[in-house]
Amino acid sequence: MGILRRIKNSLCCVSNKYLDDDDDDDATFVDEDSSEYNSSVSPSFRVSEKQPLLSSFEQEENTRLTTLQQHPVVLKSVLRRKRSVVNAANAPRRRYNILLFGDSLTAGWCEGGYGTYHPYGLRLQKHFDDKGLDVEVTVSGVPGECCVHMEERLKRELEQPGKWYDWIVILGGTNDVFQGYSAWDIFDGLKKLYTLSSKHGARILGITIPEFDWDAVNHLDYQRRIVNEHLNVYNNSTTRNAYQLFLLDKFLPMNSLTEEQRKIFWDSDGIHPTEDGYDLMGDLVCIHNGKV
């Protein structure tokens, strides 16, 4: 653990108070089976049949996405523990609700995705619990989903009776790059999610698309970088109180790490973080968005 702490500190200067060992045994997960979920999903929501730019890669990519959809692809989790914490005035604190919305990077897919999930929301929830804050973190991630198809799912999430979110954290775009969507289409898809979140009355934390190292699509990395540049421009032209941007690709890089660091924080598939990587994501989001 000593080397892990040192590497985390060297990467992002994270205060040690955020790097305690996890104690998430009493966190509650609710996994929704993919067959039940997919039966209620409209055809426009499913992975697009649009021809990708990677024509030679099409068959392999379709196989990968089919495999993803055969697994329990929806991770819908409410991570808040049942507590009776009160403040110094012996009165309950106002509860905040945070929605983490996106694809497999939000769901916490790791170790090849074969039944292992460790969302960065676990670390967020632990952070709030440790601080005695009355916050409920909800994770809604669909592995393999493109952000250009997330709008309807987010609508359903926000239209739940009696449910509201103070913050919505949106992370998407990796699958869109793999499917050959243009940077502008990806950015436009993300903006639609931001608009829905804003109409809901929530504050928004956008997250840049992280680096990846997958030989079949590495030559499309420029699309990822262009999307992130668009997000930066959008961030600088938007009211900061309503929208903020977290540069995940800068604070949790992949390609600039040493081999030892990469094994700690990134899975061998070259796309997803390890459990330690997801924990670091949670630490970084906590530090960036410490106003909750």
UniProtKB/TrEMBL annotation:
Q: Which CDD domains match?
A: SGNH_hydrolase (cd00229)
Going by the entry's taxonomy, the superkingdom of the source organism is recorded as: Eukaryota
Query: Which stretches make up the SGNH hydrolase-type esterase domain?
Result: 100-280
Sample GO molecular function, one term: phosphatidylcholine lysophospholipase activity
Transmembrane stretches in the record are: none
The record's Gene Ontology biological-process terms are: lipid metabolic process
Xref: Pfam families: Lipase_GDSL_2
Q: Which InterPro entries match?
A: Ester_Hydrolysis_Enzymes (IPR051532), Lipase_GDSL_AS (IPR008265), SGNH_hydro (IPR013830), SGNH_hydro_sf (IPR036514)
Q: What is this protein called?
A: 12011_t:CDS:1
| Source species | Ambispora leptoticha
* High-level lineage: Eukaryota, Fungi, Fungi incertae sedis, Mucoromycota, Glomeromycotina
